């Protein structure tokens, strides 16, 4: 019978993974601060600069299945060391980029680096904590989702005082070094160091990638992942642009004890809520089930996006509603990864979730399209209402499509296991 890992051992693994994720987060979540400065310095169009964001996300996500293979072969320590080097190198390259091509190449390098870090740390959390899978992967993903809380203001201040090039260079060196140092603590769990959940249905069979790809439930999860990740990803890349177009970017929000412009205030709040949502909804899913949690979270995101499109010209509403959107969006990275491991086992989860995670790459293709649609219609409302409809579709799909499919999946697995046991007894 599997036994629990010593708490100090596996929690140390979790802490090291969170540190790595925090250091890797700036490439995605601080990008919006650099876009106006890059456009102003070089005269490039906003849409062309945002292509770099798409390149980063596509490379980060679409290489994840390959990275999953190397995680299983070489272990977490080597992968995170490589990831830390490329993560730091990306921003150093950005500091020297004098052409769009150079910007895109740097984005691709960053995608490789962050992909290695993200895939490895999530993989480790899923393997070390099957009994608390939602919470553990939620905490790990929270490091990535809210890792920029402490750096948003320093980065903004340094961009203002020293320029965006020096900011890229300095923070690139720091974040790369932190990841590489934390990598030294990582290792994979042994078979006797894990235990399963007693409240969430979890497969005792370890599916290979090929077997997982032959199940209908994989493609339902992939479709839902694309639908839900699109809205939040668009907001991450475009929030500064949306604030500017809605006319609230530089309007102060007065909290009586301090005053801050709407955009940086929203960015800070969004990072906090984005990070909080991942362990919070993951913890809830450990107790009430993944599909029910998905329904509540995805519906909240859809309603929040509709409200943002309707009331976002008010600075207070912009801050609060963008926070609601990020609160309801961040959990996709804990819920889908935990559901994948519950469904297909943890032995090959690096490759399987890596393939599922490519949904983020497909969604990233919609980021420049959203900008073009906004410019064509003159309003963000069309874009926001479209992604809200996608979120609500996924919310109802979680209850009425995914839930019965997973119930059947686990039932068939249990019947197959019982039949195998019966044959062994009679043999």
UniProtKB/TrEMBL annotation:
Alphabetically ordered keywords of this record: Membrane, Transmembrane, Transmembrane helix
Segments passing through the bilayer: 12-31, 51-71, 78-97, 103-126, 135-156, 168-186, 217-243, 255-273, 294-311, 317-340, 352-370, 382-402
Pfam families: MFS_1
Record SUPFAM superfamilies: MFS general substrate transporter (SSF103473)
Major facilitator superfamily (MFS) profile domain: residues covered: 12-406
InterPro entries, alphabetized: MFS, MFS_dom, MFS_trans_sf, Na/solute_symporter_CS, Oxa/Form_antiport, Proton-linked_MCT
Protein name as catalogued: Oxalate/formate MFS antiporter
Organismal lineage: Bacteria, Pseudomonadati, Pseudomonadota, Alphaproteobacteria, Hyphomicrobiales
């Amino acid at each position: 019978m599997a036994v629990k890992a010593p708490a100090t051992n596996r929690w140390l693994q979790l802490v090291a993974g969170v540190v790595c994720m925090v250091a890797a987060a700036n490439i995605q979540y601080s990008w919006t601060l650099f876009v106006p400065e890059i456009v102003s310095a070089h005269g490039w169009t906003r849409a062309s600069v945002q292509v770099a964001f798409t390149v980063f996300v596509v490379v980060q996500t679409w290489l994840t299945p390959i990275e999953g293979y190397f995680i299983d072969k070489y272990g977490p320590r080597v992968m995170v060391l490589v990831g830390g080097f490329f993560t730091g190198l990306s921003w150093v390259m950005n500091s020297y980029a004098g052409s769009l091509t150079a910007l895109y190449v740097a984005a691709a390098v960053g995608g490789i680096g962050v992909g290695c870090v993200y895939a490895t740390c999530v993989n480790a959390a899923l393997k070390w904590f099957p009994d608390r899978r939602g919470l553990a992967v939620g905490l790990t993903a929270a490091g990535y989702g809210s890792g920029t809380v402490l750096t948003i203001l320093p980065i903004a201040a340094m961009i203002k005082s020293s320029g965006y090039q020096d900011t890229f260079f300095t923070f690139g060196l720091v974040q790369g070094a932190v990841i590489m140092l934390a990598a030294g603590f990582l290792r994979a769990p042994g078979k006797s160091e894990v235990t399963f959940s007693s409240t969430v249905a979890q497969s005792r069979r370890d599916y290979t990638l090929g077997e997982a790809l032959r199940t209908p439930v994989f493609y339902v999860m992939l479709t839902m992942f694309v639908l839900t990740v699109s809205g939040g990803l668009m907001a991450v890349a475009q929030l500064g642009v949306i604030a500017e177009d809605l006319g609230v970017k530089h309007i102060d929000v007065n909290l009586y004890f301090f005053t801050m412009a709407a955009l940086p205030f929203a960015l800070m709040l969004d990072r906090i809520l984005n990070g909080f949502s991942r362990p919070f909804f993951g913890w809830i899913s450990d107790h009430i089930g993944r599909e029910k949690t998905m329904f509540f979270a995805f519906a909240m995101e859809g309603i929040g996006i509709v409200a943002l499109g309707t009331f976002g010209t008010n600075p207070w509403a912009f801050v609060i509603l963008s926070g609601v959107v990020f609160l309801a969006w961040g959990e996709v990275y804990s819920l889908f990864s935990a559901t994948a491991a519950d469904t297909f086992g943890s032995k090959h989860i690096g490759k399987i979730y890596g393939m599922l995670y490519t949904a983020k790459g497909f969604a990233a293709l919609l980021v420049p399209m959203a900008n073009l649609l906004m410019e064509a219609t003159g309003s963000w409302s069309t874009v926001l209402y479209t992604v809200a409809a996608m979120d609500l579709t996924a919310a109802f799909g979680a209850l009425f499509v995914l839930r019965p499919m997973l119930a059947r999946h686990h039932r068939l697995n249990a019947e197959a296991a019982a039949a195998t046991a019966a044959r062994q007894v009679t043999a």
